[in-house]
Design brief:
The complex is a heterodimer of chains A (about 325) and B (about 300). Chain A contains twelve helices and no strands. With about 325 residues, chain A is mainly alpha-helical. The longest helix of chain A has 30 residues. Chain A is globular and about 60 Å long. Chain B is mainly alpha-helical and about 300 residues long. In chain B, a hairpin with a 2-residue loop joins strand 1 and strand 2. The radius of gyration of chain B is 19 Å and the shape is globular. At the A-B interface, helix 4, helix 10 and helix 12 of A face helix 3, helix 4, helix 9 and helix 11 of B. Chain B: It holds the Pfam family BPD_transp_2.
């Protein structure tokens, strides 16, 4: 019994920490730089599909058969997403800032359509299966398998957290903060604001791609429906509730919101009659949307931010 | 080559344009892209459906169809109720959410909030009505041939007529009335409008009422044309934004024209490329636009 709880616990934490990586990416873009990305799901999807295509065995249903070792797939997923972000950023960052919101939203819609319709490349609506999981050989021992996965993702989150903390204290991070707080002053000091923004956007996108690849390799199966706007919304809610601007807030927000999500989801499965479950899940999303608005209204710095730090652009 | 896409695209485009009017005006006045605008369309469609259902229940029998159209008087009354209630919803959202956040002077926070409101509204609609589609009428419509390979159903013609009536009403409102002129002034330059003594807050409220009512009308008509789903408004969002930017933020004729361009392009894509890529059309047009002429047809230079 306790083994089941432990292995569920490690499964829960692994999922939540994969979200934490997405939140760290979004925090770099929004919290640190003030770039408003509403296409998170698209970037996550690119990372997941690139890694899946590169690492899966050959299949007639989609492009593949490269059979790369999974860490290489993760790296490639992150790199491809960073490149994609660079393109999207180059197109929009020079324009009025709120155009970025609309363009990234459209980007995510377009990516989802590509995943759905370019069947020879992506497997279409059926998705991609047989994605190699780390510690595949332990799959028949759930506890060890779960703890192994957790160890990988926890180490990654720790490394990324320390790296990002360092980065925001570095000269690069200070310029980013200066641009966010007062762009004119930063420009007057001779800093190329557009280039710094683009770098932050690409790096944040790369983190989202990495997070997407990690999620794909833990579930072993991906499909276009995993990358709907709901995902974008979840990640945003995690960051805002955790406290945007703070890396610690991003991670705690992911854990907190995922815990709420899993708990209410579990309660729905356990207590709501089968024919009403779809409706109850809709109510679950509505409650999270309401929660996001309430935090924005009442506690704009989030629940776990280090200091009061209103989200700003 | 069949020119069918012209007929389908024109009507779809007019509906997009109706929805985009609210988007472009609130964007110009409050400087934020309202992601919850699509849900006002869905909300309107569901209100119209519920009201017409209630009216039929009260009458004890289905209302007779009017001539060759599937649209009954109950549906028209339902659409009217939808416009009123959706205007109320828009005002409520402004009162409870947007006004408070706008007061802090951080426009982009409004966008996040509208994103949350959009999710909450859409999910509440799904909670109340489930995700299975609803229909105003199950009648089959016989299409009329117009020549050049174009066939339209009587309903399509009726909806084009209704939309043109609405557009005429808006045109008269914004050009012939004091309130309309104030609205255009605030959309063009909120600061200047306040300086000359316009009550900006009242004008913004009026804009929410108009934007909400038009969104409800567009949503109801889209529901008559195809079906009603909780996601229908959200799927309209990208075309709405593209139309608003294409026409130039703050321009009402621009929004309509932009809507028609997007509608025609989408219909052409369905006819010549494939229906599965339709949702990407608005994005492609948006990207081209941002590359070539970011201020749109009628917009001022940023």
């Amino acid at each position: 019994m306790s083994e089941a709880i432990l292995s569920y616990g490690s499964f829960f934490l692994t999922t939540a920490l994969a979200y934490a990586i997405l939140c760290l990416g979004l925090n770099l873009q929004w919290g640190k730089t003030g770039l408003f990305n509403v296409g998170v799901a698209g970037f996550v999807g690119v990372g997941a599909y690139v890694s899946a295509i590169l690492t899966t065995p050959w299949s007639s249903a989609h492009l593949g058969g490269f059979g790369l070792f999974w860490p290489l797939g993760w790296l490639a997923g992150a790199a491809a997403t960073a490149l994609m972000s660079l393109l999207v950023g180059a197109l929009t960052l020079r324009l009025r800032q709120d155009y970025l919101a609309i363009t990234t939203f459209g980007f995510a819609v377009a990516i989802q359509l590509v995943l759905l319709n370019l069947q020879p490349l992506t497997g279409g609506p059926f998705g991609i299966g047989f994605i190699p999981r780390p510690f595949e050989s332990l799959a028949d021992r759930p506890l060890l398998f779960g703890l192994g996965n957790l160890a990988i993702v926890a180490t990654l989150v720790l490394v990324l957290y320390l790296a990002l903390q360092n980065l925001s204290r570095s000269p690069w991070g200070r310029v980013l903060r200066a641009i966010r707080e007062d762009e004119t002053a930063a420009l007057a000091l001779g800093k190329n604001a557009a280039r710094y923004r683009l770098q932050a956007f690409a790096l944040g996108g790369g983190l989202m791609g990495l997070g997407g690849a990690i999620q794909a390799h833990f579930t072993g199966f991906i499909a276009p429906n995993n990358y709907l706007p709901n995902l974008t919304f979840q990640v945003w809610t995690m960051l805002i509730i955790g406290g945007s601007g703070s890396n610690r807030g991003a991670i705690l927000g992911a854990l907190f919101v995922w815990a709420l999500w899993a708990a209410t989801g579990g309660a729905i499965t356990a207590f709501v009659p089968a024919e009403l479950q779809a409706r109850a899940s809709a109510l679950q999303i509505a409650a999270i949307g309401l929660g996001l608005c309430l935090v924005l209204l009442l506690r704009p710095g989030g629940l776990f931010g280090l200091r009061r730090h209103a989200a700003r652009g | 080559m069949s020119l069918q896409f012209l007929a389908d695209g024109l009507l779809a485009g007019l509906l997009i344009g109706l929805g985009a009017i609210g988007v472009t005006l609130t964007y110009a006045m409050l400087r934020f892209a309202n992601f919850a605008h699509g849900e006002m369309m869905s909300f309107g469609a569901y209100v119209a459906w519920s009201a017409s259902f209630l009216l039929s229940a009260l009458a004890g029998t289905a209302w007779p169809a009017m001539g060759p159209f599937s649209i009954t008087a109950a549906v028209l009354l339902g659409g009217l109720a939808a416009m009123i209630l959706t205007a109320g919803l828009a005002l409520l959202l402004d009162r409870l959410l947007f006004r408070h956040l706008a007061g802090r002077g951080e426009a982009i926070t409004l966008v996040i909030a509208s994103f949350g409101a959009s999710m909450a509204l859409r999910s509440l609609i799904e909670f109340a009505f489930s995700s299975s589609p609803l229909y105003f009428s199950s009648d089959l419509q016989i299409a009329v041939r117009l020549g050049m390979g174009i066939r339209v159903t009587p309903d399509q013609l009726a909806l084009i007529g209704l939309t043109l009536c609405l557009l005429l009403a808006i045109h008269l409102l914004v050009t012939r009335t004091q309130a309309g002129r104030a609205m255009r002034a605030v959309a063009e330059n909120p600061t200047l409008a306040a300086v000359v003594g316009l009550d900006v807050r009242r004008v913004v409220g009026l804009t929410w009422v108009m934007g909400g009512a038009l969104a409800a009308a567009a949503g109801t008509m889209a529901g008559i044309l195809v079906q009603i789903r909780p996601n229908m408004g959200f799927d309209f969002l990208l075309p709405l934004f593209s139309a608003a930017i294409l026409g130039g933020i703050g321009s009402i004729p621009g929004a309509i024209l932009g809507g028609i361009v997007i509608g025609l392009a989408e219909a052409a894509c369905v006819q010549f490329v494939g229906a599965e890529w339709r949702a990407a059309v608005a994005f492609l047009i948006l990207v081209l636009l941002l590359l070539l002429r970011p201020r749109g047809f009628f917009g001022e230079a940023a």
